[in-house]
Write a structure and sequence with these properties.
heterodimer; A: 160 residues; alpha+beta; Ubiquitin-like (UB roll); DNA polymerase, domain 1; 2 domains; 5 helices; 16% strand; globular; B: 770 residues; Aldehyde Oxidoreductase, domain 4; Aldehyde Oxidoreductase, domain 3; seven-stranded mixed sheet; five-stranded mixed sheet; 30 strands
């Protein structure tokens, strides 16, 4: 048996001291060791994007990383989007545009869109659809997700 | 979004469900844990068909952290997974055992179960179990000669027959007979959240709990009670957040039974979370049928008779739905058309593949493809517009209610209301069809492979026979609506709250909607067959009317006013003629109705009411799909340029949510039409075991859908005139896209098999070139 590793994960600005097997995936550590279950597991092979989190600002599939690889990184999850009672513009826009149904893929889409809009606030419609095509949703048919991200982008740009 | 006078029905209000979900505070099955829980991992068959010679679990048992390893001998007293609607002796021999006993019959079949302290250890242990399988002949084609299922039983479970009239005579006498062979591929719901189940036995109260349930919690409670020989009231089934259902989630599967039995026998909570590979080979598949259909037609394209023989590929076992899909297929195939004589013979056959059952619009996606391909073939043969064939055959409004001596879901079909041709006309106007058609013709003349296609269908929704709710108002005026319904993420809570709030004169955000909790309400049929809004909202309406009457009765005494003079506005009872005058809130009324209250009088204590709704017939909404596609002749790729769906919902409680259902259903239908297929190699090994093989539409492949939502024909069968919404977006997609592809490549009847993958289309195009 390979020995467990002690490490600190920084999730939404908070330190979590965890003791994990080297093979433990980052998403399992975020969910089960840090207790942040908003990040979901949809396929465990990096296709569906339900487990998308931001690692040092970049959208990453947390099912394809080991927890030990994220040591020292700034990890952001859906739980970190709202400021207290105030929802992030993307969260608000998903509600207003009926951009979710079952809500299982939603945290992944929110983190994917957050990462993209922070890097490229003026992204074109075509490029945005290419980016959003990297995650799967089985309920909405995507139309309202695209609409919601567009609406949030406009709000975020206006608020800059 | 808000409404000053408390009018909620018909408003696209924001969903009550959303705030926790966008914050990551949802509670899906994998988010549920109990202290000291064990983790279950299933060892699955890696042969499609064979006799189990030996199962060696010694190495798995020896692994530290493993608590138990079970094979079928360890649970010999547990019967196979039974049927949801009760006993059906003729089908019982074909039920799936919880763990395979003597034979394995598909790759993915549960053979052993590991129980361990940690899910990683459980998975390690599963890899250490070795199966010795003596291979048996593999059957993968439902049309092929049936093979042996078990001693004395072959793989043809049943032959279903429905029909009426003299089909043979019509075929002999008809001026024209159109004959087609059509196939629908094997695909399924594939929700983004895979399945999950957590069993927990509370010995202190003698209560078995099953968490992670969905769709039909009460039915599954009753089914578990039968199988485990427990009383229904000693089993509590709990639904939490559900990451998409689509028909496949929420049925009782072997894994659900195992966590329950293990929780009782091992004395610890047992958690099972399915991984994606397991989901794609173990959860219900659907759709796969081959139809050989003949139609007798007159010189104007009027259908005189339909004769259909079809082969339903059920996979390895008959699961909880029994023969539902194969049977409904025969009943629903004629759809919106008058068919004077009809015969459908369905061969219900087992193969060595994952068992099949319902997926959103079961039987309708398949038969709409078959029937509308037939319409196109009739039109092509006569050289007329397919929509003229539809006009000449569609049932007219003055024929409603239209009775048809065929069955679907255990009742004779009776279309309640509608104007099918009228909706077609509205769609054509909305599309500016003549102009659009001319534009497509010009583009084709210029060499582009573009084309358009229509599909007309009748849906079925609102499966009864009954639903009930209980409504309770607490002393703060907050309302709890306790239903036997279920939520699969479709916005159930919001819609029920809207109906309740409308009647009670309160803000819909004051209503907490409870669903899927068998310990809160004894009866429930759940959410399937597009029934939730029709049935549960009607029960809510009836319950809220009773509660409203009770509140006003109490208020009349307190306010010294006649009952007829009172109304409820913004949570307060007021005089209609003095809406700003004296008032009494629902919370105060609840206080006055407390069991200890002096003002209670002879009334039943509590500001609460039960509401029930019963029906004899389902309601039949209807619609049309329209697709424009462009084919890439080089690659065989199909690009959907635009799509429209016209649908008469009767009455939309929340139009935004109805449109969400339709657009979401469309995207799934698109997958089944172009991309998604469970394929197997000749050894019966499943080839679609990841999302890299099983291709679902992304934002890139999914066009915007124009939804033309009509409320022209309310249903006479329920108080609000509601028809169901859940399945209309998917029903016609395969049919409309097939028709559009035919036109794009200029080969009438080219598409005979779904999905129209690039490989299949390339083959069609190459065939033509040769």
């Amino acid at each position: 048996m390979i020995e467990k590793r002690e490490l600190t994960l920084i999730v939404n600005g908070r330190d979590y001291s965890v003791r994990v097997d080297p093979r433990r995936t980052l998403v399992d550590a975020i969910r089960d060791d840090c207790g942040q279950t908003g990040t979901h597991i949809g396929c465990e092979h990096g296709v569906c994007g339900a487990c998308t989190v931001l690692i040092d600002g970049e959208p990453v599939r947390s099912c394809l990383m080991f927890a030990v690889q994220a040591e020292g990184c700034q990890i952001r999850t859906v739980e970190g989007l709202a400021k207290g009672d105030e929802l992030h513009p993307l969260q608000q826009a998903f509600i207003e545009n009926h951009g979710l149904q079952c809500g299982f893929c939603t945290p992944g889409f929110l983190m994917l869109a957050t990462g993209v809009l922070e890097r490229e606030p003026d992204i074109s419609d075509e490029d945005l659809i290419d980016v959003l095509a990297s995650n799967l949703c089985r309920c909405t048919g995507y139309e309202n997700i695209v609409k919601a991200v567009r609406a949030a982008a406009a709000k975020m740009t206006a608020g800059r | 979004m808000t409404s000053g006078n408390n009018k909620w029905i018909g408003q696209s209000v924001e969903r009550l469900e959303d705030p926790p979900l966008v914050r990551g505070r949802g509670r899906f099955a994998a988010d549920i844990s109990f202290p000291h829980q064990l983790h279950m991992r299933i060892v699955r068959a890696n042969h499609a068909h064979g006799r189990i010679a030996a199962i060696d679990t010694a190495a798995a048992r020896a692994l530290p952290g493993v608590v138990a390893v079970w094979s079928s001998a360890d649970i010999a007293d547990i019967p196979p997974v039974d049927f949801r609607e009760g006993r059906i002796p003729a089908l019982e021999p074909y039920r799936q055992p919880v763990l395979a006993a003597d034979k394995v019959r598909y790759v993915g079949e549960p053979v052993a179960a590991i129980f361990a302290e940690d899910p990683y250890i459980a998975e390690d242990a599963a890899d250490l179990v070795t199966l010795e399988i003596e291979e048996l002949p593999i059957l993968l084609d439902a049309e092929a000669e049936p093979g042996e299922f078990s001693a004395g039983r072959n793989t043809e479970v049943a032959v279903i027959q429905q029909g009426y009239g003299d089909v043979e005579a019509a075929l002999r006498a008809a001026p024209m007979v159109v004959e087609l062979e059509l196939g629908i591929g094997r695909h399924s719901g594939v929700p983004l959240e895979a399945r999950g189940a957590i069993g927990r036995y509370d010995a202190s109260r003698d209560i078995l709990e099953l968490h992670g349930a969905a769709k039909v919690p009460h039915r599954n409670r009753d089914l578990l009670a039968r199988m485990l020989k427990l009383t229904p009231s000693s089993i509590h089934v709990h639904e939490s957040h559900v990451g998409g259902g689509f028909g496949i989630r929420g049925e009782l599967y072997p894994e659900d039974v195992l966590v329950c039995v293990a929780a009782m026998r091992l004395g610890r909570p047992v958690k099972w979370i399915e991984d994606r590979r397991e989901h794609l080979i173990a959860a219900n598949h659907s759709r796969q049928q081959l139809h050989r259909i003949r139609a007798a037609v007159d010189g104007e394209g009027r259908i005189l008779a339909i004769d259909d023989r079809y082969f339903h590929d059920q996979g390895a076992y008959v699961r909880t739905h029994a023969a539902r899909v194969v049977h409904m297929t025969a009943g629903i195939l004629p759809g919106p058309y008058r068919v004077p004589a009809y015969r459908a013979i369905g061969h219900f056959r087992l193969t060595n593949k994952t068992p099949a059952a319902t997926y959103r619009a079961p039987g309708r996606y398949e038969t709409t493809f078959v029937r509308e391909r037939l319409v196109d073939a009739i039109a092509a043969k006569l050289g007329i517009d397919p929509n003229d064939v539809r006009r000449r055959n569609a049932i007219a409004p003055d024929e409603m209610p239209y009775h048809r001596p065929l069955e679907a879901l255990g009742e004779e079909i009776e279309f309640d209301s509608g104007d099918y041709v009228g909706l077609l006309d509205k769609l054509l106007v909305a599309l500016d069809w003549d102009k659009l058609k001319a534009g497509l013709a010009r583009r084709r003349a210029a060499g582009e492979a573009v084309g358009a296609g229509f599909a007309m269908f009748v849906e079925k929704s609102g499966l009864g026979p009954a639903d009930g709710v209980r409504i309770e108002v607490d002393t703060s005026g907050a309302v709890e609506l306790i239903t036997g319904g279920a939520s699969l993420g479709q916005g159930f809570e919001t819609v029920m709250a809207q109906v309740c709030a409308e009647i009670l004169g309160i803000d819909y955000r004051r209503v907490r909607v409870t669903h899927g909790q068998t310990d809160r309400i004894a009866f429930g049929i759940g959410a399937h067959a597009s029934r939730a809004t029709v049935m549960t909202a009607s029960a809510t309406y009836n319950g809220a009317m009773k509660l409203r009457a009770k509140a006003i009765d109490m208020a009349a005494e307190l306010m010294q006013a006649p009952i007829a003079a009172l109304d409820i506005v913004e949570g307060k009872v007021v005089r209609k003629d003095q809406p700003l005058g004296p008032s009494i809130s629902l919370g105060e009324i609840a206080t006055h109705l407390a069991p200890t209250s002096k003002t209670l009088g002879e009334r039943e204590p509590g500001l609460s009411a039960e509401g029930w709704f019963r029906v004899d017939h389902q309601v039949y909404p209807y619609g049309l799909h329209f697709a424009v596609v462009k084919v890439d002749r080089e690659t065989g790729g199909v690009h959907v340029e635009s799509y429209a769906i016209a649908y008469d919902i009767g009455r939309a409680i929340n139009p935004a949510l109805v449109k969400g259902q339709i657009v979401g259903g469309f995207a799934q239908g698109l997958g089944g039409a172009l991309l998604e297929e469970f394929t197997y190699n000749e050894r019966g090994d499943p080839l679609a075991t990841t999302f890299a093989d099983y291709l679902m539409p992304t934002a890139r492949e999914t066009p915007k859908v124009d939804v033309i939502l009509r409320e022209d024909y309310t249903s006479p069968l329920n108080p609000l005139g509601i028809k169901g919404a859940g399945e209309s977006g998917i029903t016609g997609v395969g049919a409309a896209i097939a028709s559009a592809v035919d036109e794009a490549i200029g080969i009438p009847g080219a598409v005979t098999q779904l999905p129209v993958t690039p490989q299949r289309l390339k083959q069609i195009l190459n065939g033509r070139a040769n």
